[in-house]
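Re: [help] complex structure
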Amino acid sequence: MDFLNAIVALLNFVIIPASAYGAQLALGALGVTLIYGILRFSNFAHGDTMAFGTAITILVTWGLQALGVSISPLPTALLALPFGILATAALVLGTDRAVYRFYRKKKSDPIILVMASVGVMFMMNGITRFVIGVRDIQFDDGVRFVINAREFRAATGLAEGLALRSTQVITLVTAVLVVWALFWFLGRTRTGKSMRAFSDNEDLALLSGINPERVVAVTWIIAAALATIAGTLFGLDKSFKAFNYFQLLLPIFAAAIVGGLGNPLGAIAGGFVIAFSEVAVTFDFRKVVAYLVPGDWTPDGPIQLLSTEYKFAVSFTILIIVLLFRPTGIFRGKST
Amino acid sequence: MSFLEAHNMTGGYGAADILHGCSLSVEKGQIAVIVGPNGAGKSTAMKAVFGMLKLRGGHVMLEGEDITQLSPQARVAKGMAFVPQTSNVFPSMTVEENLEMGAFLRRDNVAATMEQVYALFPILRDKRRQAAGELSGGQRQQVAVGRALMTVPKLLMLDEPTAGVSPIVMDELFDRIIEVARTGISILMVEQNARQALNIADMGYVLVQGSNRYTDTGEALLADPDVRRTFLGG
Amino acid sequence: MTLNYRNIALFAGMALLLVLEGASAKNAIFSGSWDTSLGILNVGLISAVLALGVNIQWGYAGLFNAGVVGFVAIGGLAPVLVAMPANPGAFSAGGIGLAAAFAAAVATVWLAILVNRRASLQVRLIAVPLILIGGFLLYRALFGPATTAIEAVNTAAAGNLGGLGLPVVLAWPVGAVFAAGAAWVVGKTALGLRSDYLAIATLGIGEIIVSVLRNEEWLARGVLNVNGIPRPWPVPREIDLQSSADFVARAASLGLDPVSASTLTVKLLYSALFLIVLLVLIWLTQKALSSPWGRMMRAIRDNETAAAAMGKNITRRHLQVFILGSAVCGLAGAMMITLDGQMTPGSYNPLRYTFLIWVMVIVGGSGNNFGSVLGAMLIWYLYTKAESWGPQLMAFVTSGMADGSAIKAHLLASAEQMRLLTMGLILLLVLRFSPRGLIPEK
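Output below.
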C-alpha cells in the first residue's frame, strides 16, 4: 500500500505537472526551432510572441464570456484560440515585412537578425502590456478537475490524493494534436516538404523553384500558431503575466538547443527533458521517501536538490552540459 | 543555331572579371564538356550560363531565345536544370522526397518521371526511403542528377559530377550520363577528369583564364598533341 | 577619434539638454530641476561605463551578451561584501560551515574532472555522475545548516554575513573581478560555438545570478535588501552638510536653501567621481583599440576565417574580450549600488539592464567608445524623461475623448508601457536606417 502511495505522490507532484509543462515547452521550442531552421536565427521575441497571442486570446475570451458563449466544461479560451492565432500571425507577418525581410535580402549576419529580434521583443512586450496590462490574469473558466484529490482518496482508500487538473489534460491532448498536425504537414504536404527542403539546403531549394518568401511566410504563420497555443496552454495551466513569458525564453531555448536547433523532433524531446529535470530537481522527495522507508528513517529536512527559485538554473545547467559535450544537440540539429 | 549558345560571356563576382569572352554551345541531345586547369573559370562559366552570375558582356540563347536577363528560377522553368558540385541534395530528406522537390514546379503527375529516374539509377529505388545525407558519395551524386532530371529538362548542366567518387563509380556515372543524352537531353558539364570526360563528349571546350583556348569535338581534342601535352598529361 | 566638429556638436547638444533640464522653467518638456538633471547625469555616466563594457564585447568582437543584467548584479554584490560592516557573530555561526561547503563543491568538481580524464570509459560513465551527485548532497548538507545559522544572527537588521567594512571605492574593482569570474565560466563553455549560443548562455547566467541575489539571504539579504551602504570618499551625507553651519552659510550666500544645496553637492561629487572613472576607462579603451591588440580584435571580428588562417586563436581572444567587457559591466554594477546606497535585487530587470544598454550601444555607434558614451547619456535621458512625457502625450491624445470613458482611462494607464515600445522602435529604426549609429566607427 505504501508503495502505491509513493507512486501516486510521484505522479501527482512530478509526472503529471512535468508532462503538462513539458508539452508547453515543447510547443514553444518547436516555434523557435522552425524559425531557426528556415530563417537561421534565434528569435528572442518568441516569448513575447507567446505573450501577445495569449493576451489576444484572453481578450476574445472575455468578449465571448460577455456574449454568454461557453463551451463548458471546456475553458472558453479554447474557442478564442483561433482568433488569437490569427491576430498573432498577422502581427508576425507584419513584423517580418517591416523588419526581418530587409536583413534577409541583404544576407546579414545572423546575429544582426538576433539583434533585430530584441528590438521586436521590446515592441511586442510594450504592445502586450498596452493591450492587457501587467496584472496577473486567471482566465480558466472550465471545470477545474478531472480527478479531484479528495474523491481519489475516497475511491481508492489511499492516503495520498491524486489531482488531475483539466488544464493539464487539455494541454497534453492539444499538444499531441498539434504535434501530429505539424508533422503531418511537414512530412506529407508539398508546402511542408518545401519548408524542410529550404531548411536543409537553401540554394538547392531555390534551384528547384521553391519560393523563399512563401516558405518564410508559412513558417511565421506556423510559429505564430505554435506560440499562441503554447502561451494559452501555459496561461490556462498557471496564469497569465507578461513578464513570465519573457522568462520562459530560457527554458524554451534550452529545449530547442538540447534537442538540436532546427530539428522539430528534437525540440519536443528537449521540452520534456527540460521540464522533467526542472520539476524533479526542485521537488521535495521527502513525502515519497517517507512511504518507502521505515518511519524513523525518514530524514527531517527536505530531500530536494534545489529550491524552486532556482528552476531556471536547471535549464541553464542542462544547456551548458549539452553545449560542452554535444553542441549540435541530442538529435543533431544544425551546428552552423 | 545550336540548342544552347553562350556567346562572348564576360563577367565575374567582384570588380575583376573571371570570364573574358567565353563562348560555349551545345547541340540537341549532345554532350558538351568544359575542361581546363584549376582557376580557369570552368564553374564560373557554368554559373554564368545558368544566370547565377551577372554578365557584363555577351549573351546566352536557349533555343534561339535570349535568356541573358532571366533569373535561375526562370531558367528552370525554361527547361534548364543545374546540379551543383557540392551540397546538391537535401540531406535530411529521403531520396524520394529529394526527387519530389526536384519536380516542385511541376503540377502534373510526376510518377512517370520518377519511374524513369529509378530505371536510370536502380539503386535509388532501393534506397528511396533513406535520408539522402546517409548515402555514399556516388549514390548522392545519383540523387543529385535524379533531382535535376525531375523537372524534365531539355538541358542538364553538371558541375564536376564525379568529384570525390571512385573510378568505378565515375565510369558508371558517365555511362548514365550518356544514357540521359540518348533520351534527347542536351548536357553541359564541367569535369576534372578531362581524358575520361572528353571520351564521352561530342564537343569539348578547353578553358584557360576565362576564355576558350581550344574548341573541337571530344575526339579531336584527345588527338591534338598540344592539348594532350598541356592538359591531359601526355 | 579625431577632433570632429560633428561629434563635438553631438556631445554639446547632449550637455545642452541636461543644462536645459536643470535651468529652464518647468514646462512640458523640461522639469526645470537641477536635482533631476544631475540625477539623470549620474545614472547616465554609469550607463556610459556599462555601454563601454558592452561595446568592448559587441563593437570590438561581435559578441552578443544577453545577460548584462547578471554581470551588473554580481558587480553590485561587491559593495555589500566589501563596504558593509560585518554582522557580528555571523561568521562564527556559519562561516566555517560555508567554507567547508564551498570546499566540498570545488573538491567535487575537481575530482570529477580528474576521474573523467584518467579513468576508462566504463568507470567514467558510472563514477562521474556518482561523484557529482554525492558531492552535491555533501555540499547541501554542509551549506543548509550554515546558511540557516547565519540567517539567524541578528535577523531583523542583517541576517547575512555582512561585509569587510572597507572603503566602498575598493568594491568597484572587486565588482569587476566578480563579473570577470562569472564571464570566464560562461565564456569557457559557450564561446567557439555558434554566435547565438553565447547570447542564450548569457541570457541564462544573467537570470541565475539575479535569482541567487534574490534568494540567498545569508549573502546579501535577498529581497530584504541591504540599506545604508557607506558613501565613497569624498561624498558626504546630506544630513551632515545640513548640520554644518559653514555649509549652510555658503549655501545661503549662493541663494540656496540648505536642503537642496546639500543634495546638489552630493550629486555633483558623485558626478565628478563617476566622470573620473569614465574618462580613465575611455582613455584605456581608446588606447586598447588603437593598439596591435585592438587591430587584431577588429580583424577577427571582420573576418574570422582569415584571422584564423593567420594563426590567431579566435576562441581565446573572444574569451579575453568577453571577460574584459563583463568586468567593466561589473564595475558599473558596483558603482550603481554605491550611488543608490542600497542593494535591491528586485530591481534587476533584464529589460532595463540588458536590452536598454544594447539600445544605447547601437544608437551611439557600435565599435566606437565615444558613440557608446553618447548613446548611453542620450538614451538614459530619453528613457527617464519618457516617464513624464508619456502620460502628458497620452493626456494630449485623449484630450478630445469624453472624461470617464473606458478607452481614455486605459490609454492613460498604459502610457508607461509606451516606453518599452519606443525603445524597441528606436533600436529597430537605428539598426535599419543608421546601423553605424550616431558616431560611427571611422
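Residues 5-88+154-396+407-433 of chain C form one domain.
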